[in-house]
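Chain A, query sequence.
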Amino acid sequence: MVSGRGGTAVACAVVSLAIAVSGCTSGDTAEPRSNGELCRLGQDSAESTSLRGLVGGNDIRTEISNDDGDLVESMENWLKPGGAEKSALPLRMCSYRPEAATGARTVSLEFGWLPLDEANELPGQVRHYDLNGATVQANDINAKLTVPCRMPGDLGDPSAKVMLEGQVSNTLLIGTDVEQRTVDQQVTFLYLMTRRATEALGCENDPLAKDPVVEASPSPAA
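Chain A, predicted structure.
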């Protein structure tokens, strides 16, 4: 991703989200989400189902670092003249952990822009995916998705020179024997959450409209 990681020290809004009870959500409906709802998951949503598989339970604590408005503002500002030099991207949006868990390990989500001429390869054993025009790479802990996002208005041309990049990091898996199905589930979750980001940003090409069918591609030749 591009630019530094400083400048995102926004006070986290912490929500205890018992997904089975859905005490902090309004369910998975077709109505537009209100500001900040990118990270809040309805109990019957595909995102919730995928997340429960990642954290291993229904009672999940959600920590929101930035809301939808923060995402849109930061991503738009980066595309404006001189914006990249002052940017705090990638922007950490939220993190999730089992309600009973202690320590700093979470499933965390962030977004930024990746210039077309830059590579951002993950370390370690990497699996590659091609999902409805999105490119995904994943190792045991992290997954990154890149996809074109054509922004509206005057930001259309600058957005054509970059890719939207989403990243999920699951430090709950550190020290465990990670199976392929877990990696696939993490990729599915990242795809679904990045789709939410494209909706918040108003990507005119609607790049992730189709549901994902996650299957790792053959490793590229060295």
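The CA atoms of residues 8 and 70 lie 10 Å apart. The beta strands are 13-18, 59-64, 91-98, 107-115, 127-131, 134-138, 142-147, 162-170.
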